[in-house]
Amino acid sequence: MTEIPTYTMAQRLGAEALGTFWLVFGGCGTAIFAATAIPVDAQMAVGVGWLGVAFAFGLTVLTGAYAFGHVSGGHFNPAVSVGLAMAKRFDWKDLPGYVVAQVAGATVAGAVLLVIAQGIGGGFDAVESGFATNGYDDRSPMGYNLMSVALIEVVLTAVFLYVILGATAKRAAVGFAGLSIGLSLTLIHLISIPVSNTSVNPARSLGVAWFAGSDALMQVWIFILAPVLGAAIAGFTHSFLLGPDLETDR
């Protein structure tokens, strides 16, 4: 009989930090370096645009879930940890450590991205570029106001938690949780990049906001509050809406 390994809290927190680092480095890195179309010649420009950024975030979660999820559960997001705790899938006493590890991993990723970005000829201004931060009003990609941004962040984070709780439920198809969760995050970005530049993750927002100036930091509060609220709503209501089977992990 194969022995199921047990992981120390230090190992679990390390996995969360690494997974969140990968999410921010891959997703925000794509937005910073590859989203904008760069002219190659008179007839061609290269750049992945919003579609590429959406897939980048989904791929980081998909690959991170399979690489680190067996160690820590693969949250990589304080809102996810809160939602899972509300759903009784995660111990509240472990929440502070997970949040610190997630924010630390995201912050290191933001710092590494800044160092890389500053290596371009002519220099790089993180404040002027936006540095893949989230925002509302004049800092929203399409100028959406605070109400629109708050609502979409609450709704999409709640939906994200419903997907996570369903994909990891006892009766869900074994081995496909990472795929469905990663694809759902891709869809979430396809919907909301124009509105808020998509957070649904306080660590992702903080990880780059530290380096993007006071305006980014003054708006980051809503990208902490709204995702946590959406996740808490989903965690609290999922068993009433979708059945008690979701309350039990494999």
TrEMBL record:
Keywords per UniProt: Membrane, Transmembrane, Transmembrane helix, Transport
GO cellular component: membrane
Domain of life: Bacteria
Location(s) in or outside the cell: Membrane
Keyword Cell wall biogenesis/degradation annotated: no
Topology term for the membrane: Multi-pass membrane protein
Molecular-function GO term, any one: channel activity
Bilayer-crossing regions: 21-40, 46-68, 98-124, 144-165, 172-196, 216-242
NCBIfam families: PRK05420.1
The name this protein goes by in its record: Aquaporin Z
Native species: Aeromicrobium phoceense
